[in-house]
Specification:
alpha/beta, 5-stranded mixed sheet, 3-stranded parallel sheet, 8 strands, about 15% strand
């Protein structure tokens, strides 16, 4: 990217993956690199920054999406998506450099771990993917009084959507909702299609009577099979980190 120009600008976007890809398109066409990138919701206005809002354009974003897969490879697209879900600061600027450099180098970009922004993208992807994989086994669904299956979680990274798709594949005809309480958003599936909803003012119905009975049975089973003399808290927290305990039915 030696012929690209670094400009004294802060780019803002809507916070979505396709919004970010629209920003990548703008940078690639203009051959410019901003000093900072923020989503509109996270940006705190100040008199030192010169800001430019990059509007989301689905056609341009799709061109970048297809271009990444075709010219840099599916692995790069996969890495970029999971890195984008990370809660790390400066994720956007690292991803921008990673993708723009990737369009010039092709798939070889993924082997340049000595380059800081490539290493950062790989690290962010690893943490997001790892947390998503862990929660596939730790998530606890409860049947509510309206026959909707509900689960809550407090993830570090914004992994709600890939996690929701995993459970669609497992419960294809089941109505369910997964709520990310840290970000106040929910993944709602009605057996046919899904949507991401705002849950700031959401009131969760109480669990059904049958669900209450099953929870009591599960807690009884959990406590019965445990052997106090062989309890290993360190090992337990390795596989079931303490930060996730608040969303479990049983008490570790």
């Amino acid at each position: 990217m030696s012929n690209w120009k670094l400009i004294n600008q802060t780019y803002l976007y809507d916070g979505t993956f396709y919004g970010f890809l629209s920003l990548v398109f703008h940078c690639y066409v203009t051959k410019t690199l901003p000093q900072k990138i923020f989503s509109e919701k996270e940006y705190i206005s100040n008199f030192l920054d010169s800001t430019t809002l990059i509007e989301t354009d689905l056609k341009k974003a799709q061109r970048v999406f297809d271009g990444i897969e075709k010219n840099i490879g599916y692995t790069t697209l996969y890495n970029a998506y999971y890195a984008f879900l990370s809660c790390e600061k400066k994720k956007e600027i690292n991803l921008l450099y990673y993708l723009c450099d990737g369009f010039e180098l092709g798939p070889k970009i993924n082997h340049r771990l000595s380059v800081s922004y490539v290493f950062q993208v790989m690290s962010m992807k690893k943490r997001s993917f790892g947390e998503c994989h862990r929660l596939k086994g730790l998530l606890r669904f409860q049947e509510l009084g309206n026959h909707l299956y509900y689960a809550s979680l407090h993830p570090d990274n914004n992994i709600l959507e890939p996690l929701g798709h995993h459970f669609i594949n497992r419960f294809l005809q089941q109505n369910f909702m997964i709520q990310d309480k840290r970000r106040d958003i929910g993944f709602l599936y009605n057996g046919k299609e899904y949507q991401i909803i705002d849950t700031h003012d959401l009131k969760i119905p109480t669990i059904s009577e049958e669900e209450q009975k099953y929870q009591e049975l599960w807690k009884l089973f959990f406590n019965t099979i445990s052997i106090p003399e062989r309890k290993n808290s360190k090992c337990q927290m390795q596989y079931m980190p303490k930060k996730y305990w608040k969303d479990l039915i049983e008490e570790p």
